[in-house]
Structure formats: structure tokens, C-alpha cells
Specification:
Elements lengths: L1 E4 L8 H8 L5 H22 L12 E6 L4 E6 L6 H9 L6 H7 L8 H5 L10 E9 L7 E5 L4 E6 L6 E8 L9 H11 L7 E3 L2 E2 L16 H11 L8 E7 L5 E7 L13 E5 L2 E4 L14 E5 L9 H6 L1 H24 L1 H21 L1 H7 L5 E2 L6 E2 L1 H8 L10 E6 L6 H9 L4 E3 L5 H11 L3 E5 L21 H12 L5 E8 L8 E4 L2 H10 L3 H8 L3 E8 L4 H7 L3 H18 L5 H18 L1
Parallel strand pairs: 2-8, 12-14, 17-18, 17-19, 20-22
Antiparallel strand pairs: 1-6, 2-3, 3-7, 4-5, 4-7, 5-6, 8-9, 10-11, 11-14, 12-13, 15-16, 21-22
Helix pairs in contact: 9-10, 9-11, 10-11, 10-14, 16-17, 19-20
Keywords: ATP-binding, Chaperone, Cytoplasm, Nucleotide-binding, Stress response
GO molecular function: ATP binding; ATP hydrolysis activity; ATP-dependent protein folding chaperone; unfolded protein binding
Family: Belongs to the heat shock protein 90 family.
Length: 607
């Protein structure tokens, strides 16, 4: 029997393993099972080239729990180790001390040092008082037992073991009792080892699927296969809209399947739904730097051996492969969307309610995606009769919707039902109004006005229809100056909780008597302020800016001005103003109650 010290001269490496290399203790299961998979895969390789002789037999990996003995055992039937290999791999830690270790690799990805030095085995000491390794090599050599209690001291001796492979026995410490519960171990195995390429058994049950869909060729998979795999990943979700199969082997390795889920409402948005794997070993579901931010709303799996198991933010941000992968995923998604748009536009339009969120988010945050997306970003007419790309809208509206600066004016509605009166007014002038009513549209409009410098967005209720594209010269009003001033005075007393500006204009006699509009710039500022934190709430709580346009040519004002009862005049004008404010959703609370009571009173008085 050999006794000795692990080759660390000045300091014990184990506190570093526990504290520095891993933040989550359950990672030890991933590391040890991954090592067992590696040992198994190496045996297959050696067998294929004739170095390992004889039948390979059962190559499954078994995890066993003995709560009474306080042990967890990971057993494989892989290449095993000779005494010399145990000494080399487990005892000769290739640096002289913890301090030198940290200094030497400072600036590199500290979280990935384990990947470089094969130190994954030492994660066992995070949860163990003692670790025993019993192993028998595929070569003709005696089995050996190695044991260590977490100090640099170890023992190494011959052992009784007839079968090829390695058993790692963890003697669980008092702080890690959770790993003596079968459900806890099963949940960790499901998380980290669910798709490992070698059969893995726990308590007699296979817990993994060794050949998941992303490891197969797209030509070997049917639509049902893709949908079944999605169901396996997200059992409670609705079926996806469609998917993209990634398969690249140069200049980096990347496989995976990304799904577009159905998302209609903001509360359904969940990021961190893409799982990152490295050779089928689960790494993380925080893929922010690998997947473009706008595609974080996608779901599915990406697998790249070029991304190490222990990833850190600094590593991902600086690694050239990660940047290439990021760009590749963006291109693949854009190509897929364009393909569907070109080949089956009707299907694309039907799915836009869900797709629009991805596309707009991408156009705002990624200029390369914006270039491609201009071909398939679409806007729907408010009556649902037509869809337009930017170019199609430009062609359809060029004659009427170019302002004096030569910019295309895109008229839009955020709430077609509430803004119906304004839409009708715009349609009557031949204008086309599109729906922009999702949670990202306010930001989208602002961004696109900067990126599309010849486009200006105007909400359909931002002004009277005559002024939506350009300010028109005032049409003569049938009222004289004194009558106009009287109406301005009456209407200036209306509007509770809003900041009113009143103008009298000569509109068509058939147009509404009073129109309330919220100037585009001020309304946008207030909308953005509402979602921009403490400073924003100050602006968001300010009164709404409202322009009240009184149609001097409407016959009702002749009657009001002829009314000798000043109180009655005030009530009528207040009601007309309230009706206009109601169309903007700005009549609430007490003001709404007063309007209802006043309306009943006026109707009763006229009977």
C-alpha cells in the first residue's frame, strides 16, 4: 500500500475547489457523471481502432444512493485506470500552491480552469468527508483503491474489482445531507445529465435520453419529432410556431434547435428558456452573451463543444467563437423568417401577432437584423383588410402621406376600437392607418424614426384629420371673432385633470363638433416616462396635454351661442368637451361621474 501527499507544496487545494471554482454544490454530480461519460466514450474510441480488445458489453453508468451508509456512488464501465494513471491524474496536481495557481491563471477564465486541468473530479470534496475511488483499467493491470479525506493525504493500494471501469464513492458530509435524498439527486441528474450520450441509471430507472433531436440530421427528423422534443423540454407550453435546426461545423461547432413560442401578452414573456449544452452536458440556461438579446425570447437548445462547461460572463464576452455563434444565430433566424414570408405569406401574416415581438425587438437592437427584417416586417391596416411591408406602405400612400419635408408619414393606431372616430376621419381623407398596439411599439416607433430617417410616425389621434400629415391653413369659420372668443372662453373652463389648449377652426359641418387630440411629441414623452423609473413617474403623473379643436362650422354652436342661459351654455360646452375627452380615454373617476349626471340632467331638461 502506498501512502503520500497530493503534490501541493504550500497550501491545501481543496478550499479553493470548494470556494473558488464552483458556486453551486450540486455541480459535483454533473462533473463526476461527465467524467464517467468521457471514460466510456474513450473506451468506444479505443475499441474502434483496435486498441481495446474483446466485447465492450454493457456501457451504462449507474448512480447509487445508500442513505444509511451516507454514500453516493457513480459507477462506469469505461477505460478505468491503472495505479500509475491514478497517481498521475489524482495525485500530481500540476502546480505548487494555491497562490501560484491563482496568479498564474489570473486574467483567464477562472471558472473554466477545471476544464483545462481535469479537476472536475475534485468537486466531489465539496460535499464529501472522504472520497474513495476503486478502478480497474481495460488494460491487463490490477484494480486499485485510492482514498482521500479532503486533506492532501491519500492512500493508494491494490483492490478487489473484477469488472472494468471506475466506482467513485462519496462519503457525504454533515452539511450536505440533501444529497442523501433520492429526489434531490434525481432532480440534479434531470437538470444536468438528461441528454448525456451514454445510458445513465438511478435506482433502476434510466434518467436520460442519449440521442436527443438536436444530435440528429434535420433530414432524419419529421415535424412530429421536433414537436415531441419541444414537448419534452417544455411539457406545459402550447406547440411552437416553428423551429430552426442549427448545424455548423466550421469555423466553430454548433448544433441545436431553436423554437419560436407563441407569445401574445407581455406577461407571457420569459427569458432564460434556451438551454446551453457542451457535448450534451447541460451548462446553463443563462445564454445572454451567446444568443442575441432579442432572441432570448426563443426557446430550445444550443450545443457547442467550443463553449466550456464552466462559463463566466467575462469569458463569453471576450471569446471570438461566441461572437461568431451569436452572428450565425441572428442570420439563421432572419433567413428562416424571410423564407416563410416569401414562401407562405398568408401563414406568416397569421403568425405575426406572435412573431412581431421578436422581429421588432431585433430591428431595434441589431442593425444587421434590421437590414434583413425590412423585407418581412409587416403592418396591418386597422380594419384588418391589408398587410404592408414598409415599401408596400410607401407605394400605397406616397401620393397623400408625404409631408412638406418629403418624409413618409405612417399613421398608426394603438387602440383601434377606442380611436375608431379618429381612424374614420383619417380614412375619409384617403389615409391608411396601421395597427401598432404591442408592448414594444412605443419604443419601436422612436427607434425606427432614427433608423429610417425618411419616415415619421403619427398616431391617428395626434391631431385633427386635416393636420395629420401637414398643418393645413385654417378653413374660414362661419362664426365671427366675438363668437369664436366666446366659445374659447366657454371651453377653456372644461376638462378636469388635463391641461387644455383650445382652438376654434372651420372644419366640415359634418365633422364632429369638438375633437380632442394629444400632440404626438408630448404624448410620446409621457408614454415613455411611464415606464422609465422614478424620474419617469414624475413626468408620467403630470396632467395630459390635450388640444381641443372646436369646429366653428358645426350647427350646434349656433344654438349654444343663441342660448341666453349662461349656466346652460356652460353645461352644454362641458358635455361636448367631455365627449371629446372620452374618445381619448381621458375621462375618469369623478369627471366621468359628473359627465354622466350632467348628461341625464340635460336630457331630462330638454324633454
Amino acid at each position: 500500500m502506498q501512502k503520500g501527499s497530493i503534490r501541493v507544496q504550500t497550501e491545501n487545494i481543496f478550499p479553493i475547489i470548494k470556494k473558488f471554482l464552483y458556486s453551486e454544490h450540486d455541480i459535483f454530480i454533473r462533473e463526476l457523471v461527465s467524467n464517467a461519460v468521457d471514460a466510456t466514450q474513450k473506451l468506444k474510441t479505443l475499441s474502434s481502432i483496435g486498441e481495446a480488445k474483446g466485447e465492450l458489453g454493457d456501457l451504462s453508468i449507474t448512480i447509487s444512493l445508500d442513505s444509511a451508509a451516507r454514500t453516493v456512488t457513480i459507477s462506469d464501465k469505461g477505460i478505468g485506470m491503472t495505479a500509475e494513471e491514478v497517481d498521475k491524474y489524482l495525485n500530481q496536481v500540476a502546480f505548487s500552491g494555491a497562490e501560484e495557481f491563482l496568479n498564474k491563471y489570473k486574467g483567464q477564465n477562472e471558472n473554466n480552469i477545471i476544464g483545462h486541468f481535469g479537476l472536475g473530479f475534485y468537486s466531489a470534496f465539496m460535499v464529501s468527508d472522504k472520497v474513495t475511488v476503486v478502478t480497474k483499467s481495460f488494460r491487463d493491470a490490477p484494480a486499485v483503491r485510492w482514498e482521500c479525506d479532503g486533506s492532501p493525504e491519500f492512500t493508494l493500494e491494490e483492490a478487489e474489482k473484477t469488472d472494468r471501469g471506475t466506482d467513485i464513492i462519496l462519503h457525504i458530509n454533515d452539511e450536505s445531507n440533501e444529497f442523501l435524498e433520492a429526489d434531490r439527486i434525481k432532480s440534479v441528474l434531470n437538470r444536468f445529465c438528461h441528454f448525456l450520450p451514454v445510458p445513465i441509471f438511478f435506482e433502476g430507472e434510466q434518467i436520460n435520453h442519449p440521442s436527443p433531436a438536436w444530435t440528429k440530421k434535420p433530414s432524419d427528423l419529421t415535424a412530429t419529432d421536433y414537436q415531441d422534443f419541444y414537448k419534452e423540454l417544455y411539457p406545459y407550453n402550447e406547440p411552437p410556431l416553428f423551429w430552426i435546426h442549427l448545424n455548423v461545423d466550421y469555423p466553430f461547432n454548433l448544433t441545436g434547435i431553436l423554437y419560436f413560442p407563441k407569445i401574445k401578452q407581455s406577461f407571457e414573456i420569459q427569458k432564460d428558456k434556451i438551454q446551453l449544452y457542451s457535448n450534451q452536458v447541460f451548462v446553463t440556461d443563462e445564454v445572454k452573451d451567446i444568443v442575441p438579446e432579442f432572441l432570448m425570447l426563443l426557446q430550445g437548445v444550443i450545443d457547442s463543444p467550443d463553449i466550456p462547461l464552466n462559463v463566466s460572463r467575462s469569458y463569453l464576452q471576450g471569446d471570438p467563437n461566441v461572437k461568431k455563434i451569436n452572428n450565425h444565430i441572428t442570420k439563421k433566424v432572419a433567413d428562416k423568417l424571410e423564407e416563410i414570408f416569401q414562401n407562405n405569406r398568408k401563414e406568416f401574416e397569421e403568425k405575426w401577432e406572435n412573431l412581431g415581438l421578436f422581429v421588432k425587438y431585433g430591428m431595434m437592437t441589431d442593425d444587421k437584423f434590421l437590414e434583413k427584417a425590412e423585407k418581412f416586417h409587416i403592418m396591418q391596416d386597422t380594419d384588418g383588410s391589408a398587410w404592408y411591408t414598409l415599401e408596400e406602405y410607401r407605394k400605397a400612400t406616397e401620393a397623400l402621406q408625404k409631408n412638406k419635408e418629403g418624409k413618409l408619414v405612417i399613421l398608426y393606431s394603438t387602440e383601434p376600437v377606442q380611436q375608431n372616430g379618429f381612424i374614420k376621419g383619417a380614412n375619409a381623407k384617403g389615409y391608411k392607418v396601421v395597427k401598432l398596439e404591442t408592448i414594444v411599439d412605443a419604443a419601436f416607433i422612436n427607434q425606427m424614426e432614427m433608423k429610417w430617417n425618411d419616415v415619421h410616425f403619427v398616431r391617428v389621434d395626434a391631431d385633427i384629420a386635416d393636420n395629420l400629415v401637414d398643418k393645413q391653413d385654417a378653413v374660414a369659420s362661419v362664426l365671427n371673432q366675438d363668437q369664436e372668443e366666446k366659445l374659447k372662453q366657454l371651453f377653456s373652463q372644461t376638462g378636469e385633470g388635463v391641461h387644455l389648449t383650445v382652438e376654434v377652426k372651420g372644419l366640415s359641418p359634418d365633422a364632429a363638433p369638438v375633437v380632442a387630440t394629444r400632440p404626438e411629441f408630448m404624448r410620446r414623452m409621457k408614454d415613455m416616462a411611464a415606464v422609465s423609473g422614478p424620474m419617469g413617474s414624475f413626468y408620467a403623473n403630470m396632467p395630459d396635454e390635450v388640444l381641443l379643436t372646436v369646429n366653428g362650422n358645426h350647427s350646434i354652436f349656433q344654438k349654444i351661442l343663441a342660448d341666453g342661459n349662461g349656466v346652460h351654455q356652460e353645461k352644454l360646452t362641458r358635455n361636448l368637451a367631455d365627449l371629446a375627452l372620452l374618445s381619448q380615454g381621458l375621462l375618469k373617476g369623478g369627471a366621468l361621474t359628473n359627465f354622466i349626471e350632467r348628461s341625464v340632467e340635460l336630457i331630462s331638461g330638454e324633454q
